[in-house]
Amino acid sequence: MTENRPGLLEHIFDTIPLPIFLVDDDVRICSANKAASEVLGDPERTFLNKRGGEILHCIHAAEMREGCGHAPSCSDCVIRNSIKNAVRGGKIHRKRTMMYLRTSAGTKEVSLLVTAAPLAYEDKQFTLLILEDISELLQLRSLLPICAWCKKIRNDDNYWLSIEEYFGAHHDIDFSHGMCEDCYRKMYPETP
Q1: What is the model's pTM?
Q2: 177: which of 72, 96, 129, 142 is 20 to 30 A away, CA to CA?
Q3: Domain regions of the chain by residue span
């Protein structure tokens, strides 16, 4: 067992490759690990004491002069509601949400998994907030492995299903069948 030396917990916190924030009940950033600084492109951590929506450039944070937490849509914010839940002693584990962020190129849609847990320290109540960007994972998952010959789709269990079976099972979609003009001409070449 390692003794508790000053700086050990900070070192462990900075070693974790996920962006982790320590926030108050108004989503103000009180502390953050190295990964959070890198994701935000702010090694000096000038984002401290600012609200999460403001540092992440949430499109709703700019809707009201008061900033993050004051726009009408902020009442539905998964991050803000996860923190409220943690302040009441609850935990949120990897709840999925979509954020729309302002960038120099316009608006960017980001899929996140949000984890929030209460943390009491020196008679103060905080929330440990972990944000996992799963946008790339969802994009890769949206690629369907399809047989080049029979057009069956391979599912996550490595079974090959017809297109109708796959979409019926995964997306609750039913198909009606018809025939395109090209196939009609191939099947019935004698018909004008």
Answers
A1: 0.68
A2: 142
A3: 8-139, 144-187
Could you read off the pLDDT of 86-128 as tens digits, one per residue?
A: 999 999 888 989 888 888 888 888 889 999 999 998 889 999 9
* CATH no., domain 8-139: 3.30.450.20
C-beta atoms surrounding 152 within 10 Å: 16
Following DSSP, what letter does each residue of the chain receive, concatenated? -----TTHHHHHHHHSSS-EEEE-TT-BEEEE-HHHHHHHT-TT-TTTTSBHHHHHTBGGGGTSTT-TT-SGGGGG-HHHHHHHHHHTT--EEEEEEEEEEEETTEEEEEEEEEEEEEEEETTEEEEEEEEEE-HHHHHHHTPPPB-TTT--EE-TTS-EE-HHHHHHHHH---------HHHHHHH-TT--
Mean pLDDT value across residues 122-143 = 81
- With CA atoms as reference, report the closest residue to 42 among 57, 25, 23: 57
For 62-92, write each residue's pLDDT tens digit.
898 999 999 999 999 999 999 999 999 999 8
Burial state string for 43-78 with b = 16 or more CB within 10 A and e = fewer than 16: eeeebeebbbbbbbbbebbebeeebbbebeebeebb
Pair 109, 118: CB distance under 8 Å: no
Tokens standing for residue 151: 């057009």
